[in-house]
Backbone:
């Protein structure tokens, strides 16, 4: 029996889904790579991606990171001849597992553009802020019902 896939939900703030917007702004190659990885790995393994260092890591306070690190070969033209070039893809999506097989996609960034530790910490803090806001919104909805 094949396990049921995890449902991926995007954090939403006043109609904006910042993680989805970020994905749409990626290059076509990066957008395809993260889309395939989320479908084939994150949706099937969920929080268990953190058991494999290559795919994920627990960050604490309810947030985990889904990692995509790949070298992609692409063809380029140089002086009328084809040359293969390697493109490094290093993307991070910060998530929160909740409910029955659900994952909230909070925030994402291209670590390959700026791999510094300080940047990573700022991005993690944005994800944690969004998680707190989402939790507060959920508590408010429960009280009204």
Residues:
């Amino acid at each position: 029996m094949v396990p049921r896939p995890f449902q991926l939900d995007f954090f939403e703030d006043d109609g904006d889904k910042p993680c989805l917007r970020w994905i749409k702004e990626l290059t076509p190659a990066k957008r395809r790579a993260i889309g395939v990885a989320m479908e084939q790995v994150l949706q099937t393994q969920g929080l268990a991606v953190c058991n494999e260092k290559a795919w994920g890591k627990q960050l604490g306070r309810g947030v985990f990171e889904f990692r995509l690190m790949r070298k992609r070969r692409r063809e380029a033209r140089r002086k009328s001849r084809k040359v293969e070039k390697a493109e490094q893809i290093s993307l991070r999506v910060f998530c929160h597992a909740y409910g029955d097989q659900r994952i909230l996609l909070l925030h994402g960034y291209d670590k390959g553009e700026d791999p510094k530790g300080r940047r990573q910490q700022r991005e993690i803090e944005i994800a944690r802020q969004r998680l707190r806001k989402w939790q507060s919104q959920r508590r408010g909805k429960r009280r009204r019902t």
